Amino acid sequence: MMMMLSTRAVAGAGAQRCCAAVPHRCVATRMEGDASETSAMLDRWTSHAQLKDWVQRTVALCGPSRVHLCDGSQEEFDEMCHSMVASGTAVKLSDDKRPGSYLACSNPKDVARMEKRTFICSETKDDAGPTNNWESPATMHKKLDNLYQNSMRGRTLYAIPFCMGPLGSDISYNGVEITDSPYVVANMKIMTRMGSKVLEQLGSNQPFVPCLHSSGMPLGPGKQDVAWPCNPDNAYITQFPGSHSIQSFGSGYGGNALLGKKCFALRIASVLAREQGWLAEHMLILGLTNPEGKKIYVAAAFPSMCGKTNLAMIQSHMPGWKVETVGDDIAWMKFGQDGRLYAVNPEAGFFGVAPGTSMKSNPNAMLSLRANTIFTNVAMTADGDVWWEGMTDKPPKHMTTWQKQQWQPGMQAAHKNSRFTAPASQCPCIDPAWEDPKGVPISAILFGGRRESLVPLVFQSFDWSHGTFLGTAVSSEATAAAVDPLDKIRHDPFAMLPFCGYNMADYFQHWLDIGKNAPNKAFLPKIFHVNWFRKGENGKFMWPGYSDNMRVLKWVFDRVTRPYVADNAARTPIGWVPTSSALDLNGLESAGHMMPQLLNVNRPAWLGEVDNLRTYYDRTFGDRLPLGIRDQLNNLERRLKSDA
Predict the structure, then answer these.
(1) Which of 137, 262, 422, 609 qualifies as a cystine partner to 373, CB 3.0-4.6 A?
(2) Comparing C-alpha atoms, which of 161, 160, 164, 170 is closest to residue 192?
(3) Tens digits of per-residue pLDDT, 233-262?
C-alpha cells in the first residue's frame, strides 16, 4: 500500500519557478520501496550526481519514514528545536535568562567520546598505527551495513550539507552528513556553515566527505520512542581514510554524532592534509596585538585539562595588549602565495566543556553563552537557567540535575563532560578576520602539557625540526599510583593522540616534511613549549596562570617580532629560555623569586626524560619512528651531557 507523498519547499511563493537554480529544503513522507519522490526532491535540491546517488542508497539501506533535505535556515533550526522539545529530548530555557537556548539531557550510557569504539579503517593495520583501533574496510562495512539495515525505520532521515571553514576559502572542505537526529541537525547548524550555500559550492561535481550517522534505534509498530535514542552497546565511530568517509552508529552524543568535528576536522582532515601538503591540527588560534598596534597570530595545541579554551579567550590585563579569538579547538593550515602558513578555524561554533567554566576562569566564554546556545547534560535551575559545578561559588538552592532529579547537596548537578554549543560569532573577543577566506598568517605555534616538575614555564625551539620533536614529546603527569616510570607520564603527541587518522609515526614525518618543503623557510612559524602547571616543594602551583599567561604570550610576541634581540633569551640544551628579566612581571612581583625555579633546566632530570622518551618511542613506534625525530632526541642527549 502506498502513502501519499508530499514535498515542501521553503523558498516561498516563487520556489517552484526557481527551484532548479536555487537549492532549498524539501521534506517527503515515503513508504519503503518508493524512491520516485525522493529522487524528484533530490533533483530540486542539488545537481550533484554523486551526492544524489549516495542519499538514495542510504535511504534504501536505512529505511526512514521521512526524508528531510536541509537548507540551514533559521526556520529549520527552530523546527529541530521544537521537535526536540516535543519528543522530550530538550527543554526550552527561559527567554529572560537564556534567549533562544535549549537544554538536552542524554542517556547516561551516552555521555562522551567512545575511544574504544572508534576505528580507523585503513587498508592495513600498520597504516592505522599503534595508537588507533583498526579494522579492515571490508569487515567494518559488512558489520555496519547489517546495523544500518532499516536502522531509521519510523524516523526522519536528514541530509545536512556543511562546510568546514569559511565559505569560499581554498583551505575549507565540504561535507554532507546524513543522520536521524534533530539534535545533530541543530548542533551542526551552530558548529558549521550549513545549508544551501554549501550546495552551491558543491555544484555538480565538487568533492565532499560523506558522513553517515544513525542513533541505531529504529521504531516499529507499537514501539515507544525515548527522549534520547541511542544504542551504545552496538556503537561504532568509524573513519575510512581510503574513501575519505565517516560512518557512526549507536551514539547521539558530541563528536560521536556531530561528524564534522573530530571525525572530519581531525581524523579525515589529517589524512587529506598529508595527501595534499597542509596541516589539520587540534589547535586554538588567537590574534595578539601589542600597544603599538602590531599584530601576530598564534596557534596552540594542549591536551585536555591544560587550559586550551581559557587561553583562546584570555582577557589581557596588560595595558595596551589585546587578544582576540579565531578558534578554540581546531586549526587547518596551508601555505599561502606569499610563503606564509595561513590558518582557518574550520568550525563556526564552540563545543566546550561546561564544568569549571565561569566568569572567573573564562568570562569571554560565559558571555558567548548568553543566548542561542544548546546545553547538554548540565543542570537546570528553577527559574529556567542552567548551572554546572564551578560556574558560581555557591550552587542554586533549587535545580534539576542532568539526570532529571531534584538536586540535593552532595549530588552531581551536571555531568563532568557536559557541554555547550554556542555560535562563535557571539564571542565578545572574536577576531575580525575569523571568517577571512584566506585565513590568518601564523607566526608562532605553542605546545604544552601538564607537568608538575622538569619542564620550564616557556622555552623556544631552535628550529622547525626541533619544534616538531617538541610536539612529539607533549605529555602530562598521570596518576601517582603508576608503577612503571613510563606510565607515570601520559604521552599525547601534538595533543592529537585520539584524533590522528593514520599512523602517528607517519604524522611526525609529515610535520618534518612541512618544514623541509616550506616555500620560504624564513616564514615558518616559531615553535614554543609552555607549562603553566609547575609546582613548588609545597605542592602548590608556582605560576598563577589564567590572565597572567598573557605575560608569556608577550615574550612569545617579542621573540617572533624581535628575533635578534640578545637579552631576552638564553640558549640551553632544551631550547631558548627567557632570561630572568625577560618576562614582564609588573604587578606580579610576588612571582619574581620563583622565576629561577620556573625557568630552571635540570640536566640530570632532563637526561631521565630522554630515557623516558626513548623508551616511549621504541615501545610505541619502533622502527617506524622517523629518523629526524630520533636524531633530535640524540642531539638533546648530547647537549645535556655537554659542558657547553
Answers:
(1) 422
(2) 164
(3) 999 999 999 999 999 999 999 999 999 999
